[in-house]
C-alpha cells in the first residue's frame, strides 16, 4: 500500500540476509566470537523490520522480550508458517544458561527445540531416491 515506505524496508531485509550469509560463510574458517554481536544486531533489526511489514505477532514480541531478559537475541522465522522464532546462542553460551533460558521460555508457554545453523532442515525423499538397502531394512518402532 505504501511502496515508497515498504520497498526500502524490503531492501534492508534483503541486505541483512546477504550480510548474514556472508558472516555465516566466514564463520567455519574463522570461528571468532566477534561474529555473534553482528548477528545479534542483524536479528534485532530484522525483527523490527518484520513488525513494520505487519507480519510480526505479539507472542513473537514476547519471545524477543523473554530472550532479551537473558541477554539473547531472537526473531521471527517462517518455520511453522511464521509461528516460530529463532534465538541465536553464541558459541560460548554455557549449557546451564541455555537450560535456564529454555525453562523460562517453557514457563512462559513457549516450546523449545535446538538446532544448528547450516544443517539440513526437513527433507522429502521419494522412494525412488532411496537405495535398495534402505528400502529393505526392517521397520523398528
UniProtKB/TrEMBL annotation:
The main location class comes to: cytoplasm
Coiled-coil segments on the chain, per record:
none
Q: Which SUPFAM superfamilies match?
A: GHMP Kinase, C-terminal domain
Q: Give the E.C. number(s).
A: 2.7.1.36
Sorted alphabetically, the keyword list is:
ATP-binding, Cytoplasm, Kinase, Lipid biosynthesis, Lipid metabolism, Magnesium, Metal-binding, Nucleotide-binding, Steroid biosynthesis, Steroid metabolism, Sterol biosynthesis, Sterol metabolism, Transferase
Q: Does the keyword Protein biosynthesis apply?
A: no
* Gene Ontology molecular function: ATP binding; metal ion binding; mevalonate kinase activity
Enzyme class label: transferase
In which domain of life is the source organism classified? Eukaryota
- UniProt cross-references to InterPro entries, sorted A to Z: GHMP_kinase_C_sf, Mev_gal_kin
Provide a GO biological process annotation: isopentenyl diphosphate biosynthetic process, mevalonate pathway
The record's Gene Ontology cellular component field reads: cytosol
Q: Which residues cross the membrane?
A: none
| Protein's pathway | Isoprenoid biosynthesis; isopentenyl diphosphate biosynthesis via mevalonate pathway; isopentenyl diphosphate from (R)-mevalonate: step 1/3
| The family this protein is said to belong to | Belongs to the GHMP kinase family. Mevalonate kinase subfamily.
Protein's recorded name: mevalonate kinase
Q: Which organism is it from?
A: Calyptomena viridis (Lesser green broadbill)
Source organism phylogeny: Eukaryota, Metazoa, Chordata, Craniata, Vertebrata
Amino acid at each position: 500500500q505504501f511502496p515508497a515506505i515498504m520497498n526500502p524496508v524490503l531492501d534492508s531485509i534483503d541486505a541483512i540476509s546477504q550480510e548474514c550469509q556472508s558472516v555465516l560463510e566466514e564463520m567455519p574458517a574463522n570461528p571468532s566470537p566477534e561474529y555473534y554481536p553482528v548477528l545479534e544486531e542483524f536479528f534485532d533489526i530484522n525483527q523490527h523490520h518484520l513488525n513494520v511489514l505487519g507480519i510480526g505477532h505479539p507472542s513473537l514480541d514476547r519471545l524477543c522480550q523473554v530472550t532479551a531478559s537473558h541477554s539473547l537475541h531472537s526473531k521471527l522465522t517462517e518455520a511453522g508458517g511464521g509461528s516460530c522464532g529463532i534465538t541465536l546462542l553464541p558459541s560460548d553460551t554455557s549449557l546451564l544458561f541455555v537450560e535456564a533460558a529454555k525453562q523460562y521460555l517453557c514457563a512462559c508457554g513457549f516450546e523449545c527445540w535446538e538446532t544448528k545453523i547450516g544443517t539440513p532442515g526437513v527433507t522429502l525423499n521419494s522412494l525412488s531416491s532411496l537405495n535398495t538397502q534402505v528400502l529393505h531394512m526392517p521397520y523398528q518402532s
